[in-house]
Structures are given as structure tokens and as C-alpha cells.
Amino acid sequence: MIDFHCHVDLYPDPVTVLNRVEAEGIYLLAITTTPLAWAGMKQIIGNRKRVKAAVGLHPELVAERHAEVTLLESLISETRYVGEVGLDGSPQHRGSFPKQDEILRRVFRECAVHRGRVISIHSRAAASGVLDALSAHSDIGVPILHWFSGSMRELERAANLGCWFSVGPSMLASAKGRRLTEAMPSDRVLTETDAPFTRNGRSGPLMPWDVANAEADLANIWRMPIEGVRDRLLGNLRQLVASTKIMNVASAEPSRASEP
Ligand code: MN
Fold first, then answer.
1. CA of 7 to the centre of ligand 1 (A)
2. C-alpha of residue 230 to centroid of ligand 1, in Å
3. Total domains in the fold of the chain
4. 3-state secondary structure of 79
5. How far, in Å, from the CA of 23 to the mean position of ligand 1?
6. How far is 260 from 258, CA to CA, in rounded Å?
7. What's the pLDDT tens digit per position in 48-91?
8. CATH code of 40's domain
9. From the CA of 77, how far away is ligand 1's center (Å)?
10. How many angstroms does the Cα of residue 85 sit away from the middle of ligand 1?
11. Which of 7, 66, 163, 210 has the smallest C-beta neighbourhood within 10 Å, fewest atoms?
């Protein structure tokens, strides 16, 4: 299983969660919302081979934390994975939108300086803005639109720009989310939870292994058995890792032995 967008450090007991993630062989991308959380996240992860950390600055935090962008830029040299970054155009964050846009473009520039990163991108109520920023930058690596909620037309534009997509149980619970997912290029789809912000009914936050629910939805959408879904997702992840190696990323991590 793959959870490619999980704020694992925000669970009350992240180490217990990661121990089960490791025991179940789940591939997990641990997403930070501020670069100040980077060091702590790396410490929590330790040397778990299937868990990688991404450094980010969440657009919802830009109003208060925009000064952290210089730290974010400097940390991009240390990792192949960047996120969560992006734009949020919903009413409560519209005030910081110009700042969000400036920061996103600085992040893209920095990713290009380092010959590309895997970037998990937030685009709520701002899909066109994110796609405009992507169009203006080349060689940034692989953009992954997480929980994409734009229009069908924006989805088509994103696919044409080479974007990947990560989809989770919350997105797939809505008819719109399922329609968008059906229209995504299936060789550029990964699963995610966006936990612990997302909830599993009344039973608390989603857990990384709840991506099983997304796999079941994908089995319906792709009309294939669950084993086929898992093979495809793992194949996609292998492809992603392979393509980022081709990018000749400078900051090689010590062990890639158990990468897919
Ligand atoms: Mn998130």
C-alpha cells in the first residue's frame, strides 16, 4: 500500500503509527506543513526505508509563516521530496493569495535549481493558479496534485502539463472526486490519506492503512480486481522513483535498497 500524502508527525503518537506502517510494508511520504517541522519529522522517521520526508510550507499557513520561505528554500537541497506547498483560493485564505503565489514560484525555482524534485501540491479553489505557476517553470521535477478538486477542464490541462495525482478515501467519497479520478491518466495516480486531517466516519482520523478504502474505490473506477490496482499503484511508484533518479538529484540518500 502507498500513502503518498500523510502528515504523520501530527498524530498524537506518530512513532506507533510508523511502526505499524513499517510492519505492513506501506510506502509513505511524510508531509510537513512548515519547514520548522523538518528536523523533527526526520527524527521521527529514523531509518525506515519505505518512509520518506517532504519539506513544505502549507498555503493555509502562509499568512502567518511566509518568512519561513528562506528556510524552506535552503532545505530543498536536502531532500528529493517537497510538500506540502501550493495555493488555497478559499475565502479564508484569499488575503494571502499573492504571497502564496510568490512563495510557490520561489519553491518551483529552487526545485529547478536542484534539477527537479517530487512535489506534493495543494490546489483547493486554486487549480488554475497552480497550473499557471507550473506552466511558467520548467525542470521542476514531478508535480503531484494532491486531492485535486478543480474542474474537468483544469484536470485535462494538468494532465497535459505532466502532473501526477494522489487520491484518497475522502476525495473518493464524493461523486465529483470519483469522476475526476476516472479521468486521470491511471499510470500517474497514487493513493494518499492526507491524515490526520481527514476522518474515518466517527472512528477518528484516517490511518495510513486506510488507503485500502481508496484501493477498493479504484478497483471500481478502473474495473479491475484489487490485486490489479495494487500492482498498478506500485508500478506507478516505481516509475516515479526511477524518473526522479534520471533527474540526477544531487542529494542522494544513503540507502535506496528497499525503494520499490
Ligand atoms: Mn495535506
1. 7
2. 23
3. 1
4. coil
5. 24
6. 6
7. 999 999 999 999 999 999 999 999 999 999 999 999 999 999 99
8. 3.20.20.140
9. 22
10. 9
11. 66
For the record, the C-alpha cell of 195 comes out as: 491524515
Element at 106 (helix H, strand E): helix 97-113
If you average pLDDT over residues 159-182, what whole number do you get?
97
Which among 75, 72, 82 is positioned nearest to 29, based on CA atoms?
Answer: 82
Q: Ligand 1: distance of its center to the CA of 134 in Å?
A: 19
CB atoms near residue 128 (< 10 Å): 17
Where in the sequence is the domain holding 170, given as residue range(s)? 2-258
Q: Tell me which residues have their CB within 5 A of the ion that is ligand 1.
A: 84, 194
Q: Read off the pLDDT of residues 125-168 as tens digits, 9 standing for 90 and up.
A: 999 999 999 999 999 999 999 999 999 999 999 999 999 999 99
Distance 6 CA to ligand 1 centre (A): 7
The pLDDT tens digits of the residues spanning 236-250 come to 999 999 888 755 444
Residues 6+ apart with CB under 8 A from 35: 55, 56, 57, 68, 71, 72, 75
Query: What is d(CA 231, CA 114) in angstroms, rounded to the nearest whole number?
Result: 31
What per-residue confidence (pLDDT) applies to 256? 45
Which one, of 11, 58, 54, 14, lies nearest residue 33 by Cα? 58
Q: Would you state the pLDDT for residue 250? A: 43
**d(CA 238, ligand 1 centre) in Å:** 23
Closest CA to 190 of 215, 161, 171, 223: 215
Residue 257's Cα: distance from chain center in Å?
A: 22
CA of 29 to the centre of ligand 1 (A): 11
Confidence band for 203, pLDDT divided at 50, 70 and 90: confident
| 29: Cβ contacts below 8 Å, ≥ 6 apart | 3, 4, 5, 6, 51, 52, 53, 54, 81, 83, 120
